[in-house]
Design brief:
Number of domains: 1
Number of strands: 13
Order of helices and strands: EEHEEEHEEEEEEEE
Number of helices: 2
Radius of gyration: 16 Å
Strand order of the largest sheet: 1-2-11-8-13-6-3
CATH topology: Jelly Rolls
CATH superfamily: Alpha-ketoglutarate-dependent dioxygenase AlkB-like
């Protein structure tokens, strides 16, 4: 069976600016080791994916889990980070070295050499799932960027401005693409519209999104 990274491209990844302080690194994750998928499976076994509930009582269509010192959660009490998985009561699984290397390397490539994430929110999209426009603003310090890694099915990334009503640009994301945004773009609205049906050679009918943050 092919490995997740059999489609590795030995060429330098394309660096595509998408905003001030924001860049799309085409295929960046494909150049890094082969430990991402096994690590992803281990995290899912220790802290299973679940459909969290928003403060308004709506179940999210995207299934989520976390790794690192803190995990992002939502429930009736609100949006926040917590060191423990509320389902099991245990600490979130530690962040694998492969994840950390990917996040810090991509951030450095995008112009953020000091980035050291302590949280990774992992989203699992199945066809029909979506993530509405939102800001990542539960972190303590907005001086750090967000690093977002796409694996599996292709998706559309919506990237807007600092107001929800600002124009939204759309970027096609493929397996291995990484988006990094910080600085003036750190609080830009972003989202993923409804994921279309399809099948990825290694991951099947699913898309995983690894979102690295400095939460604490």
């Amino acid at each position: 069976m092919k490995d997740l990274f059999d489609e590795i491209d030995t060429h330098q990844p394309e660096r595509q600016p998408i905003g001030e302080g924001a860049v799309l690194l085409r295929g960046y994750a494909l150049q890094l080791g082969k430990d991402l998928l096994p690590s992803l499976h281990d995290i899912g076994a220790a802290a299973p994916f679940r459909h969290m509930v928003t403060p308004g009582g709506f179940e999210m269509s995207v299934a989520m889990t976390n790794c690192g010192q803190a995990g992002w959660i939502t429930d009736r009490a609100g949006y926040r980070y917590d060191s423990h998985d509320p389902v099991s009561g245990k600490l979130w699984p530690p962040m694998p070295d492969a994840f950390l290397d990917l996040a810090t390397g991509a951030a450095r490539e995008a112009g953020y050499p000091e980035f050291s994430p302590d949280a990774c929110l992992i989203n699992r999209y199945e066809p029909g799932a979506r993530l509405s426009l939102h800001q990542d603003k539960n972190e303590r310090d907005f001086a750090n960027p967000i690093v977002s890694v796409s694996l599996g099915l292709p998706a559309t990334f919506q990237f807007g401005g600092l107001k929800r009503t600002d124009p939204v640009r759309k970027f096609a994301l493929r397996h291995g693409d990484v988006v990094v945004w910080g600085g003036p773009s750190r609080l830009c609205y972003h989202g993923v519209p409804t994921l279309k049906h399809g099948s990825h050679p290694q991951l099947g009918s699913v898309r995983f999104n690894l979102t690295f943050r400095k939460a604490l």
